[in-house]
Structures are given as C-alpha cells and as structure tokens.
Write a structure and sequence with these properties.
Order of helices and strands: HHHHHHHEEHHHH
Family: Belongs to the mitochondrial carrier (TC 2.A.29) family.
Structural class: mainly alpha
Membrane topology: Multi-pass membrane protein
Strand content: under 5%
Subcellular location: Mitochondrion inner membrane
Protein name: Mitochondrial adenine nucleotide transporter ADNT1
Number of helices: 11
Keywords: Membrane, Mitochondrion, Mitochondrion inner membrane, Repeat, Transmembrane, Transmembrane helix, Transport
C-alpha cells in the first residue's frame, strides 16, 4: 500500500513537472511571437523609409523645379521651362539651391514611404483574406482592382499622417534668397505657420491631396504588382530568371507604374501646391508676382476654376515635364530599393504575396 502511495506521489510530481515545463514552453513561445512580429514590422518600416529617402534625394533638383513651375505667378514668369529653370537656379543659388527643401522633403518622405509600404502590405493581407472568405477560394490572389484599393488605402493613410510636413516642405522649396521672410528650417516653418495662420493651415490643400492620392498611389502599386505577376507567370519576353525578375525589369515596371499614376493625378497636385501657398503673407516673389496680382483661393473648386480661367487648362499640367522625369525613376528606385532592403534584412513577406 505504501509503495502504491509512493508511486502515486511520484506520478503526480512527474505530471506536475511536465505541466510546468509545457507552460514555460508556451510562455516562451508567447513572448517570442510578438517580439518577432514587432521586429518584422520595424524591418518593413525601415525598408520603406530607406526606399523613400534614396529615391527622393536622387531626383531632388527636379522636384524643386516642378514645384516652382507649379506655383509661380502667371504675371511674372521667371521659369519658362525645366532646363532654363535648372540653369537659373544653378546660376543664382548654386548647387545647394538645386537641393533646397530636400532635407524637409526627406524628413517627410521617409516616414511617409515607411507608412505607405507597410500600410499597403497590411491592407493587401486584409483585403485578400476577405476576398478569399467571400469567394470560398483559399488559393485566390489579389486582382488589379483589389490592389488598387489596397494602394489607395495606403496612400491616404501615409499622406494624412505626414501632410503638415508636406505643406511646409512646399514653402521651403519655393522660398529663394530674395524672399522677404525666410523659414530657417522645418521646425521654424511649422511653428511660424501655426502661430500666424493657425493649425488648419497645416492641412490646407488636404482634400485635393486625398482625391489625388487614390489614383496616384493606388495605380502605382496596382500597375507595378500586376506587371510583375504577368511577367513572372507568362514570361512573354523571356525576362524571368529562376522565377525572379532582374533589377532592370523591376525598374522598368516601376517606371511604367509611376508614369500612369502621376499623369492621371497631376492636376490635383498642382491645385494642392497652390492652395498651400494661400495665406503666406511674406511669400516669395515667385508666388506673389512682385505685387502684380497674387491669386487667392477659397477652396479646391475655386482653385481649379481660377487657374483654368486665368491661365488656361494647360496650367493644370505646369511642371509635368520635370515631374515626369522625376517620378519615373523615383517610383522605380523606391520599389526596387524597398524589395532589396527587405531581402537584405531577411523579411520574407513581399508586396506581391
């Protein structure tokens, strides 16, 4: 009887030890899973940020030239075209003038790009899950329309989160050495706008930005991913190597995506920039026209109406040439840099998954 009691006690002790070991294992796994998820999120955000910074710095002079062409006063034309404008900046402001506003731009685009790529991945996962649930097909993949929706969602989230930075970046880019009042940097510009124009001024032009970001970012992702899928599956031009596309091919896909998106959304970008200049009492002469009739806008529709009435329909595409030259390589570099950085960091999830 005593031996049976001892065996029973030993059995209970062993069972307790096993249970404690299992609980400890589960606890370790429970701690490991979230930390792994957080690390993966950080890697994705970092890759997106690097992609944005590299791509935007590479085309900074064209970005500044585009904005100057967009907002210059029609009564006092200083920049008649891309080449003339870049030469004029080089002659009057030097090399630094070509990159004016790029620090602010990178401070905006790095978090914007990080949030945009990460939001696209998460939106894609969510939309794909709902699509598979609805169709009952566990092997279903994202269609171009669903990718467009995921891209539009990512664009709206990223743009809204970083819009105040975009607003002051536009003003820093436009000001010249002869501007009556100089913003000394990002923080100074933000504080000055808040003090003199109020918090709403930081979101001036937000509505056309939201409307424009839907086709722009949505089409960028949808066209890029759809082109990649088509080339990998059908291999029409023999560009696939080991079921992977070369860097040149991916750059070409990004260039086509950027061209389609920016051409459709460009007029809204012009209106957004012009609305951002409203209320700037010490604006550059590029905007004021040296007192020859500074235009004021009461909203997006009014900005469209006045721009077309005073300058013609073509004014909605002012700066399109430098923007096209800028956007095509910029989008291409951003997509490829993002994927390469994620490969280096060992992040398995890709946009097209």
């Amino acid at each position: 009887m005593a031996s049976e009691d001892v065996k029973s006690t030993e059995s209970a002790a062993v069972s307790t030890i096993v249970n404690l070991a299992e609980e400890a294992k589960l606890a370790r796994e429970g701690v490991k899973a979230p930390s792994h998820a957080v690390l993966s999120i950080c890697k994705s955000l970092f890759a997106g940020g690097v992609a944005g910074g590299v791509s935007r710095t590479a085309v900074a002079p064209l970005e500044r030239m585009k904005i100057l062409l967009q907002v210059q006063n029609p009564h006092n034309i200083k920049y008649s075209g891309t080449v003339q404008g870049l030469k004029y900046i080089w002659r009057t402001e030097g090399v630094r003038g070509l990159f004016k506003g790029n620090g602010t731009n990178c401070a905006r685009i790095v978090p914007n790009s990080a949030v945009k790529f990460f939001s696209y991945e998460q939106a894609s996962k969510g939309i794909l899950y709902m699509y598979r649930q609805q169709t009952g097909n566990e092997n279903a993949q994202l269609t171009p329309v669903l990718r467009l929706g995921a891209g539009a969602t990512a664009g709206i989230i990223a743009m809204s989160a970083t819009y105040p930075m975009d607003m002051v970046r536009g003003r820093l880019t436009v000001q010249t050495a002869n501007s009556p009042y100089q913003y000394r940097g990002i923080a100074h510009a933000l504080s000055t706008v808040l003090r003199e124009e109020g918090p709403r001024a930081l979101y001036r032009g937000w509505l056309p930005s939201v409307i424009g970001v839907v086709p722009y970012v949505g089409l960028n992702f949808a066209v890029y991913e759809s082109l990649k899928d088509w080339l990998v599956k059908d291999n029409p031009f023999g560009l696939v190597e080991n079921n992977e596309l070369t860097i040149i091919t991916r750059l070409s896909c990004g260039a086509i995506a950027g061209t389609v998106g920016q051409t459709i959304a460009y007029p809204l970008d012009v209106i957004r920039r012009r609305m951002q200049m409203v209320g700037w009492k010490d604006a550059s002469s590029v905007v004021t026209g040296e007192g020859r009739g500074k235009l004021e806008y009461n909203g997006m529709v009014d900005a469209f109406r006045k721009t077309v009435r005073h300058e013609g329909f073509g004014a909605l595409y002012k700066g399109l040439v430098p923007n096209s030259v800028k956007v095509v390589p910029s989008i291409a570099i951003a997509f490829v840099t993002y994927e390469m950085v994620k490969d280096v960091l060992g992040v398995e999830f890709r946009i097209s998954d």
